[in-house]
Amino acid sequence: MAPRLPAGWAASLSLSPSTVLTTRILLIERHALLPRTAKRGVKYGWSTLPSRSRPARFNQVSSGLPVPTAGPAAALKRKEATTPLRTGVLAVKKGVSAMFVGGLRMPCTILQMEQVEVVAAKTREKNGYWAVQLGLGHKTAGNVTAPLLGYYEAKGVAPKRHLAEFKVRTEEGLLPVGVQLQPDWFKLGQFVDARSKSRGMGFAGGMKRHGFAGQGASHGNSKNHRTIGTTGPSQGGGSRVHPGKKMPGRMGNERVTVQNLRVLKFDNEMGIVVVSGHVAGPKGCVVKISDAIKKDPPAQTFIDKARRILLERNPEAEAKLEQARLRHLELKEARKEGRIGEAMAATTAATITATATESATA
Amino acid sequence: MMLQPVRRPLGPLKSLLRRNRQAQQFMARTMATETTPTASEMAASSSIPPPPISTLAAKKPSKFHVIPSKTPGKPIRTAFAVYAPPPSARAAHPDALISYHAQQIRRLDRTGTRTALFSKKNPDAAKPGDVLQVTTNRGEPFAGVCLSIKRAGVDTAILLRNHLTKVGVEMWYKIYSPNVLGIEIIWRRPKRARRARLYFMRKPRHDMGNVEHLVAAWRRSRNVFSSNKGRGTQGKGGKGSKGSK
């Protein structure tokens, strides 16, 4: 059913030109005086009828219909097997070298985990999926926008240089906010996938970008040695270029996943993870390392152990988060009411008093 | 060419001194190097985790970030509490790759002789143009003129060229590989090569050809100083080099 129109919608059409002009002027005058509000609402033609697409009595799942194969629930179910059990980590590519493992030389990439912290947990109830949001590095507060400063304030975490999400299979894969991940999150010798952005090559031709063969140097070829040639059949074939035809264009600077790299070494003190083989992107690029989806995950005992160690290193994470959240609410209220200056002064005074008390007791 | 001695009157003296020094060193035979492959890397680094870093102090909201206002009477527009970041691995190890190289070289070259043999700081180090012999844990030792040294930390490699059965052969050797048992300087180029990569030596005009005569001379000179001279098997590269260190 089309939305209803107001009763007098055709009245303006039948008016004489002079009247239309006056009406317009009047309208402008009225708009100039009144607040600029759009003409919206039920009385201007919006329908208040319930949505016709809602499941009614006869297309309920319980009425013997098959379970839908599309939609968020079906998507999560479908991707369950390839979603890792636990989160991966963020790291910075530092360079490429080699490692001698038992007389065998293995090319390897050195990745450094710099202040990798859990910033948020995405849940099925709220976001539609399970994921861990991680932050990497540090950003000066002056370079962070005010909304994000509020976000980090509420999490009790210092502003991060990069943020990324890692989907996990179930709720068990989530981690408390504020815990710091170390390289020993991975098991030595386990397989990981590395995702990063490849080096941008700029605008490249078909030969470089897609490995086309190019054309002959001679035999009457004229100024078409590196061109791509034909882009499709002629009349009868549709006389069109098929979607996805490989052509010249921007090359690189796209996300590349390198699967099944072995973890050769990790060092918590240096914060490095050394993986076999090469990872896409230049030195200094951000790499997402996670358990390989095409190999068995590390043993459940190891996963539990890594988690236990992580929680031992970051005690009372939940309590700290709650504290930060409450404080954030207080400060937010203060900001709204314009008394953030007093709130700051009070906090500083309290800190000074606490320090003085501590030093006095000591 | 004629003007050169005028400009550098002490030029020949330097090379003479160098040759003299090397001749003395040659008698001492200290350049033979040997590395023992250590326990596997898996066992070496599984002894982590280190003590946990206390994050309790780091979690304190240390300061406020104030966003100033442009209104004259109101200095502060808004402010946010900013928490202190955790300790930075990057600040402690700004160049992780160099640290990695150092760590791996420590593991593979305990005595440091292999590093010294190719160090730029060592005036008596092996240089491009010298004839080197590499003994591996399989097959005959390979001798050849060093065309280039690719310096890449633990992945440092040398390129040797020789002629075997009148066919030019080039071999890359990773100097820190556990499979390389020893590297020895067979013959020194009398004058320092003025290029770092001697790829021109592949051309027939500059090719050294087979270096077997240099190896034989080196073996003979070693036999003079060994206790049981006259035994032909003594000079066999790898064994001699291993015994000398």
UniProtKB/TrEMBL annotation, chain A:
Keywords: Coiled coil, Ribonucleoprotein, Ribosomal protein. Gene3D superfamilies: 3.30.160.810, Translation factors. One of its GO terms (cellular component) is ribosome. Residues 307-334 form a coiled coil. Residues 214-251 are annotated as: Disordered. It comes from the Eukaryota. This is Large ribosomal subunit protein uL3m.
TrEMBL record, chain B:
The keyword Endoplasmic reticulum does not apply. Residues 232-245 have a biased composition (Gly residues). GO terms for cellular component: ribosome. InterPro entries: Ribosomal_bL19, Ribosomal_bL19_sf, Translation_prot_SH3-like_sf. Residues 225-245 are annotated as: Disordered. It holds the Pfam family Ribosomal_L19. It comes from the Eukaryota. The keyword 4Fe-4S does not apply. Keywords: Ribonucleoprotein, Ribosomal protein. Belongs to the bacterial ribosomal protein bL19 family. This is Ribosomal protein L19. It comes from Apiospora phragmitis.
